[in-house]
Amino acid sequence: xxxxxxxxKARSATTTPSPQIRKAVEVAKxxxxxxxxxxxxxxxxxxxxNDLRDEIGSNHGVLDNPMDLSAASWTVMRxxxxxxxxxxxxxxxxxxxxxxxxxxxxxxxCPSPGAIVQYTNGIVDFHEENCIxxxxxxxxxxxxxxxxxxxxxxxxxxxxxxxRVAVGQAPAxxxxxxxxxxxxxxxxxxxxxxQVRVDGLKERGFQNAGLYDPQGVGGTHVMYVLxxxxxxxxxxxxxxxxxxxxxxxxxxxxxxxLATAAMGAVAVGSLFHYVMKGPNxxxxxxxxxxxxxxxx
Amino acid sequence: xxxxxxxxxxxxxNGVAGSSLALMGFSPGEALAETRHFKLTRSTETRNTCPxxxxxxxxxxxxxxxxxxxxxxxxxxxxxxxxxxxxxGTLCPKGAGLLDFVHSPNRLTHPEVREPGGKEWKRIGxxxxxxxxxxxxxxxxxxxxxxxxxxxLTVNRWLTTGFLAASASSNESGYVTHKVVRALGMTAxxxxxxx
Lengths: 296, 195
Hints:
heterodimer; A: alpha+beta; Alpha-Beta Plaits; Single alpha-helices involved in coiled-coils or other helix-helix interfaces; 2 domains; 4-stranded mixed β-sheet; 3-stranded antiparallel β-sheet; 30% helix; elongated; B: alpha+beta; Phosphorylase Kinase, domain 1; 5 helices
């Protein structure tokens, strides 16, 4: 029996398949951007639970604080201003962080065995002790989430509080959220409540309201309810149709097996060469001559 | 270190062979992946009320150790109390950051006084502080207490001193504070006892 508290579905740079018999309930976090007030309780709860204290930054004249994700800030509120068709200002606030893709680009790109794992409940987790700090996960991520720490040169991002979820609790951000904009539960149930929210928004005149659960990455385990689901890029550049970069699948899909085959061929070739030709013998006379030259 | 041509080739060949083996999946076994250990297991859980505003959210404070004799407790985590009817587990950003408030080096840990005309805060003892407050209150009350108005109406009021009480009081402590302050005849009184 496995020793880990959550079953593993996929593991970076590992070719042997993971155990697949036991089924876990897929979890998801649903973020309703239409009722988020941007209070940042989620940011603070994340810092508190994960024992993170980022450096105190400086004021840039906007409410975004800190300005970007970092190795010690795994979630940040993104504040976007949008002037709608009626000429009214809409303040679109989005909690940014790891989306926990079903088809995670970071895991695909990662060359270090076991540095990135995907649990059967959908959480994509980084195991920093196996991280070599190459930064391929950043290239692989369609949402630009992982950050390399300048202190230990390892990649960090939201874990969806895997340590809490493993013992049956909700992520710290979802628990703290005072407006109920972040909810947590089984993905199936989150899809249901998202539908209720979207229907409600449509009734109130937001015809383009919808759920953001991009299928380009197989769906995500962090989903958004957006008033403008037709234009997610309004929400501080949320990608319309995120995909893993083709370079990742080229490198990991085609180039890697080819290189492995080439290395195997070299090994086999060397063996044959050794068997057929034998080692390159140096005659005793030549050796003695060389030794004499060396002595002089 | 003297590197001969032969040794150089040997090192290179070993390097290539080693990395090739690793790439082809013959690398040594890794420790099994595991989530970070749940950090609150068997810590002591204490219920309390958030000290910030008059909403009065319930909080759970988790402290190190099990309160056994030789263990010095220390609060290691604070989060919302799901059983509290006010917030049902949620917290605002200030409440969510209470741990850093508890352990802040800027906290006032003892009574201080800044005497009239003085510029510096002076550290004093608790007894001294209570005596000083009591004496000043009594002097002021004796001098300014109004028992009756000019036309003979009994009012028993003391208008020259006000009282500001805490926000994190329970109903009971709010009730007691109210009784004490009103019994003295004080009218200027604010207490965020809406918890």
